[in-house]
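User: Structure please.
Assistant: Input sequence and predicted structure:
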Amino acid sequence: MELAMNNSKSIKAAIVCGVLLLSLITAGWKLGARPLNGHESYVSVTARRMLQTGDWVVPVYNGEVRIQKTPLNYWLVALTAKITGHIDDFTVRVPSVILALLSTVAILYFINRCLGFRAAVLSALIWSTSIGFVRYGRSARPEMSLTCFVTIAFLAFYSALETAQRKRQIAYLLIFWASFAIAMLAKGPAPLPLILVPLFLYFLIFRQWKSLPKLLPITGVIIFLLIVLPWPILVANRLAETAGGEINTIGFWKREFFNRYFGGLGGSSKPLHYYLHVMLQFILPWSVFLPMALAAPFYKVWGEKQKTMLFLWFWFVGGVAVMSLSSGKRMHYIMPAMPAMAILVGILFDDLVFARLAYSPRFAQNVLLFHLGILLAGAIGVPAYAVIQKQYVVFRETIIISLLTLIIGSVIAALFARNKPALGCAAIFVGYCALFMPAFNSLTETKGRSYYVSKFAQSVASRIHQSENLVAYKDVSSVFVHYFGKDVPVMQDLSQTFERYRTGSWIVATGDFAGRLMNDGRFAIAWRCPDARLDEGKIIQGALFHRP
């Protein structure tokens, strides 16, 4: 018996390691292969300034105070850079990879306690292979930081409700309040509606009001405020001192956060149903399960699982509903709700393959055949599309990926046909990784907007001595500032730009702004770049000017 238990623990440990390895691959594969995009560069440049000045309170981007975003990602990137010794594409993205892994660990731990080990593993695998996870787990943007701590907060809260041991309940509640607060530092004030609205709806529907006194309402709120409030207070005081009281930080944050939600910052207003296609995209390749997962929690066939599924349903639907009511919708705003959907899909996947409480073997077979059909269509269609579009550069890669897809699909079909569901599941997720790596390699070879700007910035940096100054005329992208390696002040006035040029500064400009300086007659061209940036599919020139 003891030997069997030890073997069981060893097998479970091996499975957990396998899940975490897959999660690491999908979030971290070729982490530094693609250039940073504009949003990531805001994080890197701000973190770089923190390291240079030692001021970790007031974020500054390219010489301008940047308090539009809460500081957690700046701090994490700066801390990582302290360890690695420099800020580069890899270092900037490492914190998001670590937090992506942490979100997977949270699902494994808490779902194991609620629903069992198998459901926990499948839920973690679904989450780690979803497009939302892959996209933001490798991005320096704060989305994965927010998603990770919102996930921990929800799972810890539900575990606290369900546990009968008061000590364990208190521990979970402390985790809830701390995670809630850290989520606020990741991307405040988004966690307030994302967490409180679903919890309020859950309490309202299930009449859980009697549980409120047990949730550490006083202690928890104190912990929450002790974590959340110091940074905005320090920022407000610092800016009041340096600006002589001219900067109203409260008014600024009100405009930034509330006006953004209600559409006061302008931009195109998206329809109420905007997030329908976004949620289907983020849960790919498991999108077919999404409508099933939305309906499943309301059937009693799930027995004891139903209560957990309903909590997950409120987490997901409540979060999406809150963001759907916003006038300033962005696709990444619903990322914190996606782990709930991944867990629901994991529960359905478990039932289709193993438990068979809600779905018949025939239905499970049809779902498998549907996905195998999609694999077959993709294996044939992608190379054909490459030929039609005359994309001969990637044709070889598409053929290799298509052949690999056919092999993986055949292995999966054979294992399920021989009634080996565990091996069949393993083949699905191992096959996913086997396809993911070469497919991602092909994607990293495409030349996007950041590619051109990064090359332009590095070329400019190689032509200017570190002690010399560079000024941008009219505009400079955050990607350029990151790859140039130091701040690039922006001059809006032509006469001021010429004065900086006359006193020895280098001037950089792109597009029409570069053309304006060329036509002015007073600026000598030191170097012209025909492909400085990509704008709406068009290659835009850039130029560097310096007095002879």
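The CA atoms of residues 115 and 305 lie 7 Å apart.
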